[in-house]
TrEMBL record:
Superkingdom of origin: Bacteria
Organism of this sequence: Halomonas casei
Cofactor needs: a divalent metal cation
Listed CDD domains: RraA_family
Name of the protein in question: Putative 4-hydroxy-4-methyl-2-oxoglutarate aldolase
Record InterPro entries: RraA/RraA-like, RraA/RraA-like_sf
């Protein structure tokens, strides 16, 4: 329950702020985007490793996923088939799944957006998939530079997706709050005539580069 409370508080901040506050780590690569710019998602990761062009393990995963979980799927960057569509979305909603992050494509985009289910993906493809190949659930996945472990907390919005380990939630929340407060002060000072070079202490660097 503590982690749920912390993650809910952290979800009030943008993914970029969370990423920076935790030391510029945990970001999935920028190729993974929300289907709609208004989509947001947060919750613990339920990880799934699937074979490109096959979605059997997604059907299997939805038998075991818990309400509030975010389905994080590694489809190996394969974008020439959509292993996720409107029917799986309906089932995910009925199970209380918080959203989908997939290192691959989806299809039935308009239906998914109408249903209001948060989906972050690498692309869209009208092509279907087989349902024959094995895979794995609840194992570490590597997407971009980020390693996502089962139970890591996922935060996604229009800027991108970031993962935070459960044991770091409290520290990252504190750091994010401090970062937001600092940036609020910067905005006020800029309105009063300050500039980013002085606020960020960039004068010495500019002098060294003879850019003063």
């Amino acid at each position: 329950m503590i982690n749920t409370h912390l993650s809910s508080q952290l979800s009030q901040f943008g993914s970029a702020s969370i990423y920076e506050a935790q030391g510029a780590i945990g970001a999935l690569d920028s190729g993974i985007k929300p289907l709609s710019h208004t989509m947001q998602v947060f919750g613990p990761a339920f990880t799934v490793d699937i074979r490109p062009g096959d979605n059997l393990m997604l059907h299997y995963a939805l038998l075991h996923i818990q309400p509030g979980d975010v389905l994080v799927v590694d489809a190996k960057r394969f974008t020439e088939a959509g292993p996720w569509g409107d029917i799986l979305t309906e089932q995910a909603i009925s199970k209380g799944v918080a959203g989908l992050i997939i290192n691959g494509s989806v299809r039935d985009a308009q239906a998914i957006k109408t249903l209001g289910f948060p989906v972050f993906c690498r692309g869209l493809s009208i092509k279907g998939t087989a349902k024959k190949q094995p895979g794995k659930i609840n194992i570490p996945l590597c997407i971009g530079d980020a390693v996502i472990n089962p139970g890591d907390y996922i935060f996604g919005d229009e800027d991108g997706v970031v993962a935070v380990s459960p044991q770091n939630l409290a520290a990252v929340l504190k750091a994010t709050q401090e970062r937001e407060n600092t940036e609020a002060q910067y905005r006020e000072k800029i309105k009063q005539g300050s500039n980013t070079v002085d606020l960020l202490g960039l004068r010495d660097t500019l002098n060294k580069l003879k850019l003063a």
